[in-house]
Write a structure and sequence with these properties.
By secondary structure, the chain is of the alpha/beta class. It contains 7 helices and 9 strands, in the order H-E-E-E-H-H-H-E-E-H-E-H-E-E-E-H. A 7-stranded mixed sheet has the order 1-4-2-6-9-8-7. Strand 8 (171-176) and strand 9 (181-184) form a beta hairpin. The radius of gyration is 16 Å and the shape is globular. The termini are far apart. The protein binds a DNA duplex through helix 6.
DNA sequence: CACCGGCCTATCGGCCGTTA
DNA sequence: TAACGGCCGATAGGCCGGTG
């Protein structure tokens, strides 16, 4: 169950580009999330222009505003801030912008707390996701446990094992191909008890940049 | 009747928004 | 501004229905 975001404009942006950052076909790092959560009143916030700008060209946005996502701008208030704050701790820089892509299990924006279930997922979008992960030049894929659970329930990712197979430094790894690594990692909106592990994982992700 | 797998629920540590 | 409670993701254990 989920609640779709009421903003028509925001929905259009997602329909046009069902991803954030660089397009998945061009990416080296692919982060798979549950849903794109926005403050309900995003259209009336001052930074909405910048959100639109970000969705039309995430790479230029990063160069121009020196942050990878509009939620990191001081003016933004609402959900999703912690996620991107933690993501930023990996230490990606502007020069990396054209290698990083975010995709979501749900192909449209949402508000509030969502509890996604199998019936919320669209088969077409899932097979699109499968292509982006497996039939692409993407080198490093990151999947949190909640996302992986849903992916398994959908039965559309037969290559995804029940549990990570091995450890790669601080990251657990689901799958290692010739030129593709699929990692399990902690969701970026974690904190507290899991924060230490999340930082260790971030460290390992940072070390992957040079490959 | 024993076992297995899918699903649900409780629990935990801890952040953060609300309230006064 | 201090205290409280609602809520989060991760995890583990338990319930239930199907199967041999």
């Amino acid at each position: 169950m989920y609640q779709k975001h009421p903003s028509k404009k925001l929905n259009e942006l997602f329909q046009e580009k069902p991803y954030q950052g660089v397009s998945p076909e061009k990416a080296k790092f692919l982060f798979v999330g549950l849903d794109a959560n926005y403050a309900e009143n995003i259209e009336s916030q001052n930074i909405f222009d910048k959100v639109v700008e970000y969705h039309s060209d995430g790479v230029s946005f990063w160069q121009k505003y020196k942050v990878h996502h509009p939620f990191l701008l001081n003016e933004y208030r609402g959900d999703g801030k912690k996620y991107h704050k933690n993501f930023a701790r990996i230490g990606f820089q502007e020069k990396d912008a054209n290698s990083i892509s975010f995709i979501e299990i749900l192909p449209f924006p949402t508000v509030g707390r969502n509890k996604l279930e199998k019936s919320d997922l669209s088969g077409n979008h899932l097979s699109q996701i499968n292509d982006w992960i497996m039939n692409s030049d993407v080198k490093f894929v990151f999947i949190s446990s909640g996302v992986a659970n849903l992916m398994r329930k959908s039965k559309q990712f037969s290559w995804l094992p029940e549990k990570p197979k091995e450890q790669f430094k601080n990251l657990r790894m689901y799958r290692q191909g010739e030129n593709k690594f699929v990692f399990s990692h902690l969701h970026f909106s974690n904190y507290g008890k899991f924060e230490k592990q999340m930082l260790l994982e971030a460290e390992t992700i940072r070390e992957l940049i040079k490959y």
